[in-house]
Amino acid sequence: MAPFPNRPGTPGAADSSPETSPLLRPTSPPSTPSTLSPTASLRSRSLRFLRTTSLLSALVSALCAGSITIFSLYGATFQSRLHYSQFRVNGLASAASIAMYVPVPLLGYLCDRAGPALLSLLAAGMFGAGYSAAAVGYERAKEVVGRMPPVGGGDWKGEEEERRWYVLMVLAFVAIGIGTCSMYMSAVATCAKNFGRGKHRGLAVAVPIAAFGLSGMWLSQVGSRLFASRDASTEEGEVDVVRFFVFLAVLLVAVGVAGALGLKIVDEEDLIEEAVEELERSGLLDGSAMFTPGRSENGYGAIERGDPFDQLEDANTKDPAEEEALLKKQWVLNAETRRFLTDHTMWCFALGFFFMIGPGEAFINNMGTVIKSLYPPTLHYEGKPTSTATHVSIVGITSTAARLLTGTLTDLLAPSPKARHIQITPSRGLLGSNGRLSVSRVTFLLAFALLLSLGLTGLASGLVQNHGDRFWLVSGLVGAGYGAVFSLTPIIITVIWGVENFATNWGIVAMFPALGATLWGLVYSAVYQAGAKREASSGGGSGRGGEEENLCYGQECYAPAFWAMAASVWIACGLVLWAWKGRNGWAQRGIVV
């Protein structure tokens, strides 16, 4: 894939690529734009090669990072083989979700300041430890359950041992969540910074996010086909959990180490220089203030520090120019973080993301038990029941297609701001680059959020109960809506608040879905478990006890939860609309989005 084109140079400079254009503040007069010297040509080819290898490395990382999205492939096995309740199964999914989202601001901060390679190496360690521990915990817990006496066969004293292995499983999924977050952030930040300054910024962000969504599709097929259980007592399509976890541990350690070597941010110094110049042009920053002792910009968050040249004299381990560039980078990034946190529309937008993504996460995590509830054992069905792996793949395909589609369409139809960095001064533009009336990225976001809610309401209404062959309508709509929202949100962040501090900004917003996924996972668990208890008390089960007491069949197992989730998405649409069109929102401030 060819690198994405970059925006032409700043006013007064030659319109050339960043690899060959002079610095924004050259210390010597720029050379006449003529034939490139051999040295400049070699540097241009070298930078192009670095961009390409970084892009390939980011795509490989993203294509493998989404292993947690196939939790529903083996989540029902925890119920049937380990006799976990729905609350326990959701406890594992919630542990992974919380660990995947809560550390994102810290990991984004590290990515912006130390680079994506560090995060990729961290992901390798977390994935290796997490999946290895999960494999051990599952095998030991299965042995403990195997020693359980039959119903009415006497007391069982294995509760404490079973609890210890469950705690190990929770810790393992916490490590898996952190690994997912680290690998995903390193891939998306690399593409956003290397290719997100041109007119194809939407596609630059959408491609790795789409690859992340695609990872669930191919991993679910590998798990259900190559790692299908060989035990004759298991159901068709059930995964051999231990072997699959070992495979994931080996694969993701290898990908994480490769990413640590291949993920690079190209010409980051130029990016910071351009950000400083854009901010100075806005009138909010005085370039001399950066190195003025004790000076802080009013309301913009510049760091108060002593004279950095005094620090340079004391620090003999670094070159003065290198140290100055590092201080300038920290100053700009910290200033932009403060600006981001003090923008009230950001908080409204983040809450909208919270109410949209939480229901989608809960659906994906619990899809396996929802599908099982569609087929009560008391009824006879023609043909084979639909499988969880099929719908994990449908979610992956529709999610990937929606991400690529929205990234491409917003590049073609949405307005683009004049600046490539944080939008501060009004920059009105209702027409696209082709002169036609443009369509805002927020319009796309709201439209796909409504598709997400349509899928949730279709499930809640009983459309697919006893008709598993219709479930593709639900998984397809939810997958498309979920994927588009997860793609458009970071794209909007790059358009409004720039790319140089993208990992930190996106990390702050991406933290919110952790609470949403946990909240709706608990709501679904409560509804499901209440239905299972009602069936058990009324004699609706098959009388086997144990496993059967934890299972629920019928619309009452899920309908109330998914009606509430649909309402949550509608509330989210209202919050995003307020951030866009409300008082002192983006539209009133002349921010192009």
Automatic annotation (TrEMBL):
The keyword Transmembrane applies. It is a multi-pass membrane protein. GO terms for molecular function: transmembrane transporter activity. Residues 1-39 are annotated as: Disordered. SUPFAM superfamilies: MFS general substrate transporter. Belongs to the major facilitator superfamily. This is Probable transporter MCH1. Keywords: Membrane, Transmembrane, Transmembrane helix, Transport, Vacuole. It comes from Parathielavia appendiculata. Coiled coil: none annotated. The chain crosses the membrane at residues 55-77, 89-110, 117-138, 165-190, 202-221, 241-263, 442-465, 471-499, 506-527, 561-580. Pfam families: MFS_1. The keyword Hydrolase does not apply. Gene3D superfamilies: MFS general substrate transporter like domains. Signal peptide: none annotated. Residues 16-26 have a biased composition (Low complexity).
